[in-house]
Amino acid sequence: xxxxxxxxxxxxxxxxxxxxxxxxxxxxxxxxxxxxxxxxxxxxxxxxxxxxxxxxxxxxxxxxxxxxxxxxxxxxxxxxxxxxxxxxxxxxxxxxxxxxxxxxxxxxxxxxxxxxxxxxxxxxxxxxxxxxxxxxxxxxxxxxxxxxxxxxxxxxxxxxxxxxxxxxxxxxxxxxxxxxxxxxxxxxxxxxxxxxxxxxxxxxxxxxxxxxxxxxxxxxxxxxxxxxxxxxxxxxxxxxxxxxxxxxxxxxxxxxxxxxxxxxxxxxxxxxxxxxxxxxxxxxxxxxxxxxxxxxxxxxxxxxxxxxxxxxxxxxxxxxxxxxxxxxxxxxxxxxxxxxxxxxxxxxxxxxxxxxxxxxxxxxxxx
Length: 367
Known about the structure:
The chain is α+β, with helices and mostly antiparallel strands. The N and C termini lie far apart (136 Å). A hairpin with a 4-residue loop joins strand 7 (300-306) and strand 8. The chain folds into three domains: 2-126 and 136-147, no CATH class; 187-244, SH3 type barrels (Roll), CATH 2.30.30; 252-343, Alpha-Beta Plaits (2-Layer Sandwich), CATH 3.30.70.100. The radius of gyration is 37 Å and the shape is elongated. Helix 3 packs antiparallel against helix 4 (81-122), helix 5 packs antiparallel against helix 6 and helix 10 packs across helix 12 (322-343). It has twelve helices and eight strands. The model has no long low-confidence stretch (mean pLDDT 82).
């Protein structure tokens, strides 16, 4: 035993040093993780730093793998040293590159997030920052992957071409589908020309109306008035005609239309609709100076169409924005119906006349 120890004394010492180095590096990683976690928790309470936990796991795994490779030097032949050294450098390079990429992406993401929160607090538009946040994070990870490919000789040509910039578009076009590219370009157009922004209320159809909550590289997210999230590809939004209730002046004219029977008093029905709209808490006076001088009513009413069994009366009611217009509409429809019932104004429903035809009796033949 003593002879074995004397013979392999240097290898035993080296092995112990390797084990100690791995343990020390893992302890240092833990200490740094705890220090960063406490520091960030004091600065930004409530934030969850999953990237920091991921970096810790990568570093702990990296120290163990490097320690195993270092141990291999103690048992391998000298002719294998060159291969082991190459593997050691490759693992160390990829591990540290992964850590650097994650840290850079997380830092960029956090900077954009704080800038977006600041914009929202100041009442500024955060749309561009939200979009650029995705672009920056994806770009950092893409560059990190390309630098990782440089470590492999067989893939070095592809990485160098992509990093040079000449082949980026070709690679993306070859890998991504046409629809994905259309959504990406659509997102860039939305950010560039700004047909709508974060916080705007838009309408694509009767079933797709709500507030824009996010714009990503692929899609736009709107929250409807049922508190459901609608995810719409950017390419679809660029093709469709949409209504933006917050672009320019926010004042909204709500058209209240109700049909009444031909026997009902049209003048009285117009008066009731006008009064109910003008008495609503969200109504605003949108009359011009000329209309004020002429003592025109705040809410204009008119008979707009004649149908088979009804006539339609419309009231034009103005509110300060679309949400108020929606509330006004549902309130006055109920109050107008109640007033119509009290005043004897009939809201018609379809009539059907059924004619019963009696079949003639056939004469009985006699022999």
